[in-house]
Amino acid sequence: MTVHRMTSRAFGENLVQAKEAAKEGPVFIDEEGQATHVLLSVEVYNKLRRSRTLLEMAERWNGGDFDFDPPKLDFRSKPADLD
């Protein structure tokens, strides 16, 4: 998947080019150097709509138990230096 960037001015002047680029991947549209919009193909948009978060899947879970063995975190903390 290719990601494209365009200024809002270039987007307005080259709509056909932007739509063609969106077939390859998202097109980020920038205003004053910051992305403000994203142009996606309908296919990619529909895939995103169908994807669910882990919480949404858990809320809809109506099956039985399942094994879940998360990895143990291995980090050491030290007290904060408040001086």
From TrEMBL:
Domain of life of the organism encoding this protein: Bacteria
InterPro entries: YefM-like_sf
Family as reported in the entry's similarity comment: Belongs to the phD/YefM antitoxin family.
Protein name: Antitoxin
Originating organism: Aureimonas endophytica
Lineage start: Bacteria, Pseudomonadati, Pseudomonadota, Alphaproteobacteria, Hyphomicrobiales
